[in-house]
Task: structure prediction
Amino acid sequence: MPAHPSYNTYNKELTVLRKGHALYHPEPVNGRPVEIGDVGFIVAGSFQFLFSATGGADDPVQVHGVPEGFVPLELSPEALDIRETGIQAGPLHGRTVVSNPTAWDQASARSVFLDL
Result:
């Protein structure tokens, strides 16, 4: 394993932008996307689901069970701070990465990653 795995570098670079925890592999695991209330941990840049804090103990999503004495978290829409003006489209990178459109493909900007 490299001294600085790419998933750690990716997270470190994007953490300084204060936009949340960057997942190197954001694709849903087992076809289930991450949802508000999901409890789990991150391994090699991928979220590993344990249980849903908002689902009942008998909810089919609770494939691993729930903690003893578990009571579902009830969230009202007013409790959520959802912002439609989140991350803008285009290159998103930390301080040590330079975005540079390539000469052979001006139609889309590609990022050049510099490991400094």
